[in-house]
Amino acid sequence: MVASATYSGTYTAKTRTDVRLSDGNSFTGAYSAAYDQPASLAALAGTYAGSGVGTGARAQSMAVTISAAGAVSVPPSLGCSASGSAAPRAGGKNIFDLRITFTGATCPLGDGATASGVAYYEGGALIAMGLLPSQTAGFIFAGRK
User: Please, what is the end-to-end C-alpha distance for the chain in angstroms?
Assistant: First the structure.
């Protein structure tokens, strides 16, 4: 579910971001110099164990495998699997463009749904997220090699 909110905060370039939402939640992020390195499919390649969640579903443990060519695969779990691609984003930063298609009647985003998004890799850790074209539902995954 997507909802509107107001927020305030501070941002210091290449240092820190602090955000406070009107509902009382907050977020703090620290800059990492790894962001300024070029994205590398060779570094990204591997199998990640972690947790993933789609809109309206509970988080679950899963594995995500990414090949050196950028092919993404998620084996079937609870009747849902996924496949797609990861490619370095133009611009020379450590960000990958993702396109993931879900297969199975129990997939939270729907059988055949394709989400587009981004991934970030640093030191063996992967964070990936994407939205359906309607921008009303999506997924997030965090895992380590």
Answer: 30
